[in-house]
Structures are given as C-alpha cells and as structure tokens.
Amino acid sequence: MRVKYWKGRMKNVQVVTISLLFPFVLLAQWWPNVRLTNDPAISRTSYNNARCVASSGSYVHVVWWDWPYGLGIHYNRSTDNGGTWETDTIPTNTVVSGFPSIAVSGGNVHLVWQDERDGNDEIYYNRSFDNGISWETDMRLTNNIAASCYPSIAVCGSNLHVVWYDGRDGNYEIYYKRSTDNGANWSEDIRLTNNSGYSYCPSIAVSGSNVHVIWYDNRDGNYEIYYKRSTDNGANWSEDIRFTVDTAGSWNPSIAVCGLNVHVVWRDDRDGIRGEIYYKNSLDNGISWSLDTRLTNNPTESQYPSMSVSGSNVHLVWCNYYDGNYEIQYKHSFDNGTIWSADTMLTNDTAWAWCPSVAVSGSCVHIVWMDSYNGNNGNEEIYYKRNPTGNYCIEENKSPISAQLFILKIFPNPVKSLTVIRYSLPTEGKISLQLFDISGRLVKALVNQEKNTGNYSLIWNGTDENNRKVGEGVYFCILKTNGKCLKQKILMIK
Length: 494
What we know:
By secondary structure, the chain is mostly beta strands.
C-alpha cells in the first residue's frame, strides 16, 4: 500500500572537567502549532502509554485514530524534521480500530493498535521498511475470546517489544510478546502480571537487551504504579516492583530509557488535588530507584504525562486544567532528572488540548496532541509542535575525545562574582561558548569566532548580555565546535 507524509590563579579553586562528546546544536524556541488534520470525524491521539509520534533522523512519524471508534488508523510523516508534512493516509482501514502506538528504527516504522474486526478487541501490527511510504499486510498478534487493549511498542534494531492489557484470564493482566526479526515472526504471548486486581495501560521502553515495563494496577486496594524489567531481550522477567505507596490513586505512567538510565512519570492524587505529575529514575538499569519527585504544583488537575529521553536530556509533556480548559505543558531536565526547568505552556486557547506525545531526534523535540480549538468548529483535530534545537548537547554513542584534547573547565564553581572558564581545542575551527539558564534561555554569548588549536581562558563576571548581574541558581556553559559539544553546570550563589 502506498502511504502519503559548546590564564590565571584564583582563591578557592575548584576544577570540573567535562569529557563527554555531544553533537553540535543551537538553542531555539518553540515554533507555532501545525494542524495536521482537517476532517469531519473526531481525531484522537492515544493515551500516554502509547506514543503517537516517533522520529529518526529527519523523519517524523505520527499516528492517530478517528472517532467514532473505528474510522481507521491514520498516519502522516515529515521528511524534514517537522518543517513540512505530507497528506495523511490510512495504513489500516478497518472500521473498528483505535489506540495506535508507533516506534521507529532507522527507516523501519512499526505500528500496533487494537482492532475489533474479529468480533472482540485484538492487537494488530503493521510495518513499513521505507520510512512510511508503503505498508505491508496487517498481522494479528493476539487471539483470545476477551478484549486485548491499549498496546505500547518499543524497538531496538530488529527487536520489537509489545505490551498490552488483556482480559482473557477473567481480570485484566499485562501481556507481552516480542519479535527478533523486525516483525516477521512473533513469540507466544507472555503474561507479565498475576494478581487479583486489574492491571492497566502498560508503557514499554528498550535499550539494547534491557526491556522496561511500567503500568498501574489495584491489587493493593487502590491504583499504584508497578514496574518490571528483562535484561535478556524479553526472554525472562523480574518480579513486580511497586513504585508508589500512598492512599491515593496513581495512574497513567510513561517510561523512557537511554542506556542504563531509566525514567518514569505518572499522574498521582496523593496531594489532595486531583492529579499532579510525579517522577522517579534509575541510573543503574532499574536496580535501584530515586525517591518520588513532584514535578507539578498546580491548583488544578495535571494528567496524561508522556516522556522522551536522549542522553542526559529528559523531555516531559502533559495536559493541565488551566483557566477552564486543558492545555499542553512542557518541561525538561539537562541532567538526567536532577534539576528541571520551569513549566512551559505550549497551547493557550479556549478549547481542550489533550493527550500529548513527545519524541526526540537529534537536536529536535517533537510533540503531537489532539485539540478542539474553536477554529476547528469544536472538532478535535491533531496538532504538532516542534523545537528544532531544544534537545541540548546529546551524548553520542561513540568513544569520547580524550579529556587532554577537548576540555572545558570552570573555577571556582560555585560562583559568587567571578569565575574563570578555560577550554582546550584539539583542532582549529569556529567555536561557540554560551551561557544558558535552566529554562534554556540564552544568558550571555561569550565567544563566537574562529579559533586556532590551543588553550584559552576568559573571565565571566556573572552578568548577562545587558551587563546586569544574574540571580542565584543553576546555569549551563556550553562549548561547541566542529560538530562536538561540551556542557558544564554552573551554580551561582550570593
């Protein structure tokens, strides 16, 4: 089927050396919203367990479904990092399909959804090996007399991993299956949970042979977040780990992974408010976990978080009930979830903006959601937004350049008034040395010129571009040259 889509001496010196290798990026702001659909049906993105946007290189892939339930799974793509979009198509046009999830590896695009063509809800799969130009024949992944719902898919190379919840055993449990040959053949269904409660809405992430699954269930009386992992590509699984322990409900988790760093967000009602976004992480492949961190503090409901991670950058979107309707919010962390930016409101209109998904490729951050903005005559349509360079300094999967060759040093750090920034360049070229605040706003451009190979230093006096003293807080110094980037955190104190 054809588918249309960064010299001297001082007291109290502290030296911090960075030797991570990053690709060259520039920082920018969010671009305007792009409306992707325009049809009489209600167009819907799936809940956060399933990602409705995936990206690889300059290709961005988006899926959604039309309501009433069953008007087909729709797909669109951009070949230029979201700059322009093609005409949406229907990879599967059965009249009883919905809740799609998409994943991509190189030019291979993989799609799962739930489908009622066989009399009850089953999980179906399709794939494209040419970046979404053409699609193969639908493949049915489940076959039982009960409903199989809300699938989530993850891919690493030719290994595909799918989870969903399933009612075949009298109550809803989490099931899993995998393919090790790019979706040509699939394992038998593997039941991941076994308890008397209902288990719902799993989210899956993979890095190498490590597969991570998160979901919520009510085995302990109220809904809590649970986790389990496999370290052998899904062949064997750990015991369930309960993440949340409180008397309120915890719902709708989303999971993302990069290397051994695993990140989880969810909606939680523990604060007496109907929904805040909470977060925790593991930096050792899911062996140990941080304490819960509350990321939102709103008087109204926050829910449906979705997360994507690249290197030490963690990107989060969710919807927040603001000023009488839901709006899409965003925040990010440069440092694997230790420090987070302030919230950024991505939408602001008189209608509901709902169920966002986020993906990252290179320096670009992509977000999709459904929105009933009145310019749509109240009809829910699919919208897209991007920050072309919002993914700052991503670690590459290559051997880092030696610290003796490419170095960024800042001392003293923490900084009260003055600090010396030193850097060493292994080759000549144009360099950029800039300071940013935690929200990604440019504070000061220190160097932007051609430099020869050698060692350099300069003094920063704690001022911004307008020579005003900056406030206390965390700042980032970013050195970029010849396609490489170093990033160092600076703490300004009084």
